[in-house]
Amino acid sequence: MQTMIGVIGGSGVYEIAGLQDAQWQDVETPWGAPSDQILTGTLDGVKMAFLPRHGRGHVHSPTAVPYRANIDALKRLGVTDVVAVSACGSFREEYAPGDFVIIDQYIDRTFARDKSFFGTGCVAHVALAHPICARLAQHCLAAAREIGVTVHEGGTYLTMEGPQFSTLAESKLYRDVWGCDVIGMTGMPEAKLAREAELCYASIAMVTDYDSWHPDHDAVDVAQVIATAGRNAENARALIARLPALLGGARDLCEKGCDTALTGAIMTAPAKRDPDVLKKLDAVAGRVLKG
Ligand SMILES: CSC[C@H]1O[C@H](OP(=O)(O)O)[C@H](O)[C@@H]1O
Ligand SMILES: Nc1ncnc2[nH]cnc12
C-alpha cells in the first residue's frame, strides 16, 4: 500500500512549499465542495495533499468548514494518513504560546455541525475510544523533535462551537473540572469523520494563547491568536516537511486498526440500505460496501 499524506492546515497555515509537481486541483464530493482546492504533489518521493481548512484567505468559520467534504476529498485522492494542524488555546501553564501539543484525546462540545457520513439508509457505529492514530502521532512527535520546537506528548483538546472565544466560567470548567489541556474550534468532527473514512488521523495543536483563565494574561483576542499563529506556521511547515521521510513511501495496514475501522460497524441490513446513500459513501466506505 502506498503512503499518501494529507495535511489539513489550520489558522495561519494556508499553503505549504516544496512539493514536486505541485498543482492546486478541484475535487468534487457527494458532500459538496471542500474548503478550497487541494494542493497535490510529491515530497521526498511520497505523495502529499494539502488542504487549508478555512480556505485560502480564511473564508470558512469553524462552524461552516465543510468537514465531510474535506475528509471525503482527501480519501478520494488516495490519502492514507491525515495530519491536522490547528491553532489552540492552552489550559496549562507549561503549554506556552509557540509550543506544539500532539493531541491524543478530545471532548466534543460542538453542536451545529454534520458529524457523520452515516445515517438513515446506512447506519454505522465506529469505535472512537482512541480517536488519534498513535502510530501517526509518534511520527508527528518525532518530526517536532527533529525541528527543535518545544513539543508536548499527549493532550485533551476541547472542541467548542465558537466563533466567540470562551467565557471565564467556561474556561475554568474545561480546565479545572474537566482537566482539558487545550481548546480549539475544529478538532471535532474532523477526527470522527477521519475514523469513519478509515483514515489514520493525528493532530498537531499549536498553542497561540492561554484562553481566558490565566490570571497573568489578558483574555484571548483574535489579533493575539493571528500574530502567534503566523509565527507558529513556519514551524508547522518545517515539521510537515519531515513527515515523508519518517513515514516512508510504502506502508502496511495500520497496526492500530484505523484502515479497518468500518469492519463490522455497519448495522443496517444489506436489503434495507438506501442505494442513494450508498452511492454517497463510495469513497469513504467503498472497502466494506463493495463486499
Ligand atoms: C483564528 S482564532 C480561532 C480559530 O483558530 C483555530 O482554527 P484552526 O483549528 O483551524 O487552526 C480555532 O480552532 C478557531 O477556528
Ligand atoms: N483560546 C482559544 N479558544 C478557541 N479556539 C482557539 N484557537 C486559538 N486559540 C483559541
UniProtKB/TrEMBL annotation:
<dbReference type="GO" id="GO:0006166">
    <property type="term" value="P:purine ribonucleoside salvage"/>
</dbReference>
<feature type="site" description="Important for substrate specificity">
    <location>
        <position position="222"/>
    </location>
</feature>
<feature type="binding site">
    <location>
        <position position="185"/>
    </location>
    <ligand>
        <name>substrate</name>
    </ligand>
</feature>
<dbReference type="InterPro" id="IPR000845">
    <property type="entry name" value="Nucleoside_phosphorylase_d"/>
</dbReference>
<feature type="domain" description="Nucleoside phosphorylase">
    <location>
        <begin position="5"/>
        <end position="242"/>
    </location>
</feature>
<dbReference type="InterPro" id="IPR035994">
    <property type="entry name" value="Nucleoside_phosphorylase_sf"/>
</dbReference>
<feature type="binding site">
    <location>
        <begin position="53"/>
        <end position="54"/>
    </location>
    <ligand>
        <name>phosphate</name>
    </ligand>
</feature>
<feature type="binding site">
    <location>
        <position position="186"/>
    </location>
    <ligand>
        <name>phosphate</name>
    </ligand>
</feature>
<feature type="binding site">
    <location>
        <begin position="86"/>
        <end position="87"/>
    </location>
    <ligand>
        <name>phosphate</name>
    </ligand>
</feature>
<dbReference type="GO" id="GO:0005829">
    <property type="term" value="C:cytosol"/>
</dbReference>
<keyword id="KW-0660">Purine salvage</keyword>
<protein>
    <recommendedName>
        <fullName>S-methyl-5'-thioadenosine phosphorylase</fullName>
        <ecNumber>2.4.2.28</ecNumber>
    </recommendedName>
</protein>
<comment type="subunit">
    <text>Homohexamer. Dimer of a homotrimer.</text>
</comment>
<dbReference type="InterPro" id="IPR010044">
    <property type="entry name" value="MTAP"/>
</dbReference>
<comment type="function">
    <text>Catalyzes the reversible phosphorylation of S-methyl-5'-thioadenosine (MTA) to adenine and 5-methylthioribose-1-phosphate. Involved in the breakdown of MTA, a major by-product of polyamine biosynthesis. Responsible for the first step in the methionine salvage pathway after MTA has been generated from S-adenosylmethionine. Has broad substrate specificity with 6-aminopurine nucleosides as preferred substrates.</text>
</comment>
<feature type="site" description="Important for substrate specificity">
    <location>
        <position position="166"/>
    </location>
</feature>
<keyword id="KW-0808">Transferase</keyword>
<dbReference type="Pfam" id="PF01048">
    <property type="entry name" value="PNP_UDP_1"/>
</dbReference>
<keyword id="KW-0328">Glycosyltransferase</keyword>
<dbReference type="GO" id="GO:0019509">
    <property type="term" value="P:L-methionine salvage from methylthioadenosine"/>
</dbReference>
<dbReference type="GO" id="GO:0017061">
    <property type="term" value="F:S-methyl-5-thioadenosine phosphorylase activity"/>
</dbReference>
<feature type="binding site">
    <location>
        <position position="11"/>
    </location>
    <ligand>
        <name>phosphate</name>
    </ligand>
</feature>
<comment type="similarity">
    <text>Belongs to the PNP/MTAP phosphorylase family. MTAP subfamily.</text>
</comment>
<comment type="pathway">
    <text>Amino-acid biosynthesis; L-methionine biosynthesis via salvage pathway; S-methyl-5-thio-alpha-D-ribose 1-phosphate from S-methyl-5'-thioadenosine (phosphorylase route): step 1/1.</text>
</comment>
<feature type="binding site">
    <location>
        <begin position="209"/>
        <end position="211"/>
    </location>
    <ligand>
        <name>substrate</name>
    </ligand>
</feature>
